């Protein structure tokens, strides 16, 4: 896919142009971006600590539905109450923080720009990080609630044609 084509696909997926410099990190089985990575600073130097963005329209819709309901709270509680799960989740979030620092961001922040780990501020960001890193119990639990992790109707392809 050429960059101009990627730009239009990601703009469609996000319902807006992406901010700053970005590149695709994970693709769906149809070859369209599911997750993009952005630089931690916008062109003007403004901090932009959410590095990984879930772009897949299907996953965004499914995660939004779950984020606004009781599933998010249930998963948060399950992870926090299970020592092994919370340890693994904490390790995942610390990896994110370390990655952010290696990109030049000098503040301690976690997935979704949270100042504290295990706050589950943004499930979309948590899923995006998981799809890139394959780390994190909370994201695994969220994805297990879904029937599938990509659409069946190839909506990005239809939009792109």
Keywords, separated by commas or semicolons:
globular, 161 residues, 3-stranded antiparallel beta sheet, mainly alpha, 7 helices
Q: TL;DR?
A:
The protein is mainly alpha-helical and 161 residues long. The chain is built from 7 helices and 3 strands. Helices cover 50% and strands 9% of the residues.
Fold and architecture overview:
- This protein is mainly α and 161 residues long.
- The chain is 50% helix and 9% strand.
- The chain has a 3-stranded antiparallel beta sheet with strand order 1-2-3.
- Helix 3 crosses helix 4 and helix 3 crosses helix 6.
Topology diagram in text:
Elements lengths: L2 H12 L7 E6 L5 E6 L13 E3 L2 H11 L2 H12 L1 H20 L20 H11 L3 H8 L10 H6 L1
Antiparallel strand pairs: 1-2, 2-3
The tally of structural domains comes to: 1
Mean pLDDT: 90
Main beta sheet: strand number and arrangement? 3 strands, antiparallel
Assign an overall shape.
globular
Estimated structural class: mainly alpha
Please mark out the parts with pLDDT under 50 across 5 or more consecutive residues, or reply none.
Answer: none
Gyration radius over CA: 16 Å
Q: Report the strand count.
A: 3
Strand order of the largest sheet: 1-2-3
Beta-strand portion reads 5-15%
Helix content: 40-55%
Strand/helix succession: HEEEHHHHHH
Number of helices: 7
C-alpha termini separation: 13 Å
């Amino acid at each position: 896919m050429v960059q101009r084509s990627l730009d239009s696909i990601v703009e469609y997926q996000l319902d807006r142009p992406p901010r700053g410099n970005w590149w695709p990190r994970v693709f769906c089985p149809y070859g369209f971006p599911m997750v993009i990575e952005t630089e931690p600073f916008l062109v003007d130097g403004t901090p932009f600590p959410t590095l990984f963005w879930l772009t897949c329209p299907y996953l965004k819709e499914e995660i939004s539905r779950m984020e606004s309901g009781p599933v998010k709270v249930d998963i948060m509680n399950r992870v926090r109450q299970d020592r092994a799960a919370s340890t693994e989740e904490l390790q995942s979030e610390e990896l994110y923080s370390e990655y952010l620092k290696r990109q030049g961001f000098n503040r301690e922040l976690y997935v979704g720009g949270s100042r504290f780990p295990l706050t589950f501020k943004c499930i979309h960001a948590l899923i995006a990080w998981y799809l890139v890193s394959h780390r994190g119990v909370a994201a695994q639990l969220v994805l297990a609630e879904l029937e599938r992790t990509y659409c069946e109707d190839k909506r990005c392809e239809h939009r792109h044609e």
